[in-house]
Amino acid sequence: MTDVRSADSAVAAPPPAGSGPESGRAGRGAGLRTGAGAALLPAAGLLVALAAWWLIARLELVHPAALPPPGDVLAAFVDKPAQMLEHTWDTLLEILTGFALSAVAGVLIGLSLASSRTVERMFTPLLVAVNAVPKITLGPLLVVALGWGQKPILTMVFLLCFFPIVLSTATGLTTTPADLAELVRSWNASRWQAFRKVRFPAALPQIFVGLKVAMPLAAIGAVIGEFQAGESGLGYLILQYAGVGDTATAWAAIMLVALVSILLYSALLLIERTALPWVKETTSSR
């Protein structure tokens, strides 16, 4: 009898909450809404910005020579698409190359600072001083030292990008969670094992913070470098067309710089989410 009653109760027992098909459909619906929001909200923000730009130009709150209407900027791009895209490609290569160099050097320097208090005390003031120098003042000196072309441009990108990567790497490697550090000590792990298995993985979210800060700075550095030493690129294009009074084409190039920055930053976010899927699961979400 006991077995019968147990079987009956098992049959009659309702399924646990959140395990039915309705729950699955609700989860999929929530995912779709989240994906739609991720796509629609940036588009809505862009429309608001374009509307504000159009209104400012329409009311002539800013002189049209300084801020042409969005339609004129679009027409300038349509008139010269091949030229615009060619210079965009040059700037993109400079951004990616300079960013890659600064990422490698920044992580290595941050690792050195985190591994030794002596090294940190010796070189942190120097790194802060280098970062504090306005980089645009170094442009003419870089041209004198390195000549025209990509070398001074890549140097400018590097100088703008490396400090946040150094800082985030050093911070991440020196702030390992206490429970993980205690676990490593309980294993009697070597320094290399502790670094490879615990310290570096735990520092990756912080390192990506520095990379995300540095990515837009790479675009800024590339444009500043092209202003000073460029023979091609969007910065060169902005300077040339602004100099002859064609501000619509100059603004088209500025918009392309912004678009490249957004796309590269979004790609970096995607890499972070793919490489560190556990971060979202272990941190609070908004």
From TrEMBL:
Residues 1-29 are annotated as: Disordered. GO terms for biological process: transmembrane transport. Residues 88-272 form the ABC transmembrane type-1 domain. The chain crosses the membrane at residues 35-56, 95-114, 126-148, 154-181, 202-228, 248-271. It is a multi-pass membrane protein. Its main location: membrane. It is found in: Cell membrane. Keywords: Cell membrane, Membrane, Transmembrane, Transmembrane helix, Transport. CDD domains: TM_PBP2. PROSITE patterns: ABC_TM1. Gene3D superfamilies: MetI-like. The keyword Transport applies. InterPro entries: MetI-like, MetI-like_sf. GO terms for cellular component: plasma membrane. It comes from the Bacteria. Belongs to the binding-protein-dependent transport system permease family. This is ABC transporter permease.
